[in-house]
């Protein structure tokens, strides 16, 4: 029996028991994940964990071995042109049409989305606005082959969002970006999510970027999602405590506590101005990630995923 049309607050991505095997090798052993409308979710994992395979299944580019997958209410393996028009993909690099210019390429690609425009979501993104958004206005009429690596990466992003997608997949989106371009891109991601309601699933090896962009972080290891939560939730779950460091009269002290604020308050109540060199050290997302992946690699029982926060 066909599934009814998804409601506006239905998950944009809903995956249950996703499995993928290549010959006798099981890459995905039962992946469960959801992405809510307007949510930015980051998928982390070591090389070979199955991130790319998972993303390709969700994009409809790879057939799964088992499990149930719904993206925008449709099985990606059966998605038609109208479904694909709602999905944006930023690949590692756009290498075709080297003799074209960014303006010509985006104008050509934008034409494919016009039949799928709606009053709620007009398509395509106006080319001049898009060129300005990704910082390519000054290079709009240069041949693509002459663009720098950073400029070509900006063009990759523009190609991915020209159709004003409901759902955007970003694979290592800021690889090759300089610090200013990376900051501009982060602003763009927030704008797409906050103002246009675009749901975003991204992969990155930059943990600081994941912490800055993502509402929720998923960690994929051992063929399963072993952690699901905000950066703060995951850090608290793994670390369990913070370190408070201080000195009194030149003597150094260190104390571990699950709640540093009341501890620091009591410290000053007891010692007052004698407290010097005060530091509160919380575990970073990098600490958390290494601990969780290392635990999975050592064969420890996978931690139960946290309930994800939804905007």
UniProtKB/TrEMBL annotation:
It is found in: Cell membrane. Its main location: membrane. It is a peripheral membrane protein. It comes from the Bacteria. Gene3D superfamilies: P-loop containing nucleotide triphosphate hydrolases (3.40.50.300). The keyword ATP-binding applies. Keywords: Antibiotic resistance, ATP-binding, Nucleotide-binding, Transport. Pfam families: ABC_tran. One of its GO terms (cellular component) is plasma membrane. One of its GO terms (biological process) is response to antibiotic. GO terms for molecular function: ATP binding; ATP hydrolysis activity. InterPro entries: AAA+_ATPase (IPR003593), ABC_transporter-like_ATP-bd (IPR003439), ABC_transporter-like_CS (IPR017871), ABC_transporter_ATP-binding (IPR050763), P-loop_NTPase (IPR027417). Residues 13-247 form the ABC transporter domain. PANTHER family: ABC TRANSPORTER ATP-BINDING PROTEIN. This is ABC-2 type transport system ATP-binding protein. It comes from Geodermatophilus amargosae.
């Amino acid at each position: 029996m066909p599934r009814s049309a998804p409601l506006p607050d239905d998950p944009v991505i809903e995956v249950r028991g996703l499995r993928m095997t290549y010959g006798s090798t099981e890459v995905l052993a039962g992946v469960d994940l959801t992405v809510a409308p307007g949510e930015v979710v980051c998928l982390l994992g070591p090389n070979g964990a199955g991130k790319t395979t998972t993303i390709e299944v969700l994009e409809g580019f790879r057939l799964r071995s088992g499990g149930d997958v719904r993206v925008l209410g449709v099985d990606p393996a059966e998605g038609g042109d109208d479904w694909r028009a709602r999905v944006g993909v930023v690949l590692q690099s756009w290498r075709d049409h080297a003799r074209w210019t960014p303006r010509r390429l985006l104008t050509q690609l934008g034409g494919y989305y016009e039949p799928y425009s709606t009053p709620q979501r007009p398509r395509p993104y106006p080319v001049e606005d898009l060129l300005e958004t990704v910082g390519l206005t000054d290079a709009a009429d240069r041949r693509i082959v002459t663009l720098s690596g950073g400029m070509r990466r900006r063009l990759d992003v523009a190609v991915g969002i020209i159709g004003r997608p409901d759902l955007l997949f970003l694979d290592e989106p800021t690889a090759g970006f300089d610090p200013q371009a990376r900051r501009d891109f982060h602003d763009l991601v927030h704008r797409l999510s906050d103002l246009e309601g675009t749901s975003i699933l991204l992969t990155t090896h930059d943990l600081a970027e994941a912490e800055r962009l993502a509402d929720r972080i998923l960690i994929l290891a051992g063929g399963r999602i072993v952690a699901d939560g905000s950066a703060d939730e995951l850090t608290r779950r793994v670390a369990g405590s913070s370190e408070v460091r201080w000195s009194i009269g030149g003597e150094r002290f260190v104390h571990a506590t699950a709640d540093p604020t009341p501890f620091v308050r009591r410290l000053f109540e007891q010692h007052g101005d004698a407290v010097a060199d005060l530091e509160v050290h919380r575990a970073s997302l990098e600490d958390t990630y290494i601990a969780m992946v290392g635990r999975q690699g050592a064969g420890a029982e996978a931690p139960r995923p946290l309930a994800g926060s939804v905007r």
